[in-house]
């Protein structure tokens, strides 16, 4: 039993490390062109945010110049960046430095 | 299907459409605004940009198709659930490109607020800025009336 518990802990830690190593951030940067209502709509459409969350991130972009809108595996992060760029938002992929 | 029809003043819109048509040939070959793709390898980056330009061109064609022969006689454009999404994106593409090519002399803050002394602008810049505002109005109209169909599609 003890050995079994130890193995479980090791596997859990290994799994968590893999997930953290694979974490990438999707960051949207401010631009002077896109309308606030447009950015809110794009966040809802592309990232599935509700109105409140979309507005929060839009205001973050507007006031702070950037907002991390998604964190996760690189492949999915790339797909989000591509779609946001299709909508002409300035979106970049960043390795998650917080791990 | 929800449909929004807008009657535009042809004499007012005609010079703005000239700006759009003049820039469209150039915009067909490039992204409306450069994107930072540092983390992608060269080959993947090329395919990525190519696909973005292809999608952008599809959107531009949909927007330009609004201003056809029928529009020239009646001055009416119609937005619906089928064309709202490509048109709202194409408006952004043109606005970004107008800023790059025609409105560099205006500070970002003026573009964000729309607070520009029109009388002080050269005619070409004034017309470009009017076009920039016209496209924003089209976007606001679409978002106001058709956002739910865009988000839900």
How are the SSEs placed, and which strands pair?
The complex is a heterodimer of chains A (99) and B (153).
Chain A: H1 2-21, E1 23-29, H2 36-47, H3 51-64, E2 66-73, H4 74-86, E3 90-95
Antiparallel strand pairs in A: 1-2, 1-3
Helix pairs in contact in A: 2-3
Chain B: E1 3-7, H1 10-27, H2 42-65, H3 69-74, E2 76-80, H4 84-102, H5 108-113, H6 123-152
Helix pairs in contact in B: 1-4, 1-6, 2-4, 4-6
Taking the alpha carbons of the first and last residues of chain B, their distance comes to 13 Å
Q: What Rg of chain B do the Cα atoms give? A: 16 Å
> Count the helices of chain B. How many?
6
Q: Give the terminus-to-terminus CA distance of chain A.
A: 32 Å
Compute the number of helices of chain A.
4
Kindly provide the radius of gyration of chain A, computed on alpha-carbon positions and rounded to a whole number of angstroms: 17 Å
Instruction: Summarize the largest interface: chains and residue counts.
Output: A-B, 20 and 29 residues
What is the number of E strands of chain B? 2
Low confidence ranges of chain B = none
Descriptive report:
The complex is a heterodimer of chains A (99) and B (153). Chain A is α+β, with helices and mostly antiparallel strands and 99 residues long. Chain A is built from 4 helices and 3 strands; from the N terminus they run αβααβαβ. Chain A has helices at 2-21, 36-47, 51-64, 74-86; strands spanning 23-29, 66-73, 90-95. Chain A has a 3-stranded antiparallel β-sheet. In chain A, α2 (36-47) packs across α3. The longest helix of chain A has 20 residues, at 2-21. Residues 1-6 of chain A have low confidence and may be disordered. Chain B is mainly alpha-helical and 153 residues long. Chain B is 67% helix and 7% strand. Chain B has 6 helices and 2 strands; from the N terminus they run βαααβααα. Chain B has a two-stranded antiparallel sheet with strand order 1-2. In chain B, α2 packs across α4. Chain B is globular and about 50 Å long. Chain A binds chain B through residues 31-35, 37-38, 41, 44-45, 82, 85-88, 90-93, 95, and chain B through 32-33, 35-36, 38-39, 48, 51-52, 55-56, 88-89, 92-93, 95-96, 99, 108-109, 111-112, 136, 139-140, 143, 147, 150-151.
């Amino acid at each position: 039993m003890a050995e079994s518990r130890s193995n479980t802990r090791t596997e859990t830690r290994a799994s968590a490390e893999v997930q953290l190593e694979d974490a990438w951030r999707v960051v949207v940067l401010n631009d002077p062109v896109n309308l606030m209502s447009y950015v809110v709509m794009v966040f809802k459409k592309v990232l599935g945010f509700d109105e409140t969350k979309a507005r929060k991130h839009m205001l973050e972009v507007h006031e702070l110049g950037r907002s991390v809108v998604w964190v996760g595996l690189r492949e999915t992060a790339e797909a989000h960046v591509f779609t946001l760029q299709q909508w002409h938002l300035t979106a970049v992929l960043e390795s998650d430095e917080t791990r | 299907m929800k449909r929004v029809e807008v009657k535009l003043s042809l004499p007012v819109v005609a010079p703005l459409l000239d700006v759009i048509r003049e820039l469209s040939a150039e915009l067909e070959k490039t992204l409306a605004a450069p994107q930072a793709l540092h983390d992608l390898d060269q080959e993947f980056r090329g395919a990525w940009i190519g696909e973005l330009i292809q999608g952008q061109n599809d959107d531009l064609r949909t927007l330009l198709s609004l201003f056809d022969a029928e529009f020239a006689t009646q001055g009416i454009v119609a937005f619906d659930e089928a064309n709202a999404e490509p048109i709202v994106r194409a408006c952004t593409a043109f606005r970004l490109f107008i800023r790059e090519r025609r409105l560099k002399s205006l500070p970002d803050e003026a573009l964000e607020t729309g607070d520009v002394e029109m009388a002080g602008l050269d005619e070409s810049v004034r017309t470009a800025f009017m076009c920039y505002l016209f496209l924003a109005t089209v976007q606001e109209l679409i978002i106001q009336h058709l956002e739910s169909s865009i988000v839900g599609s």
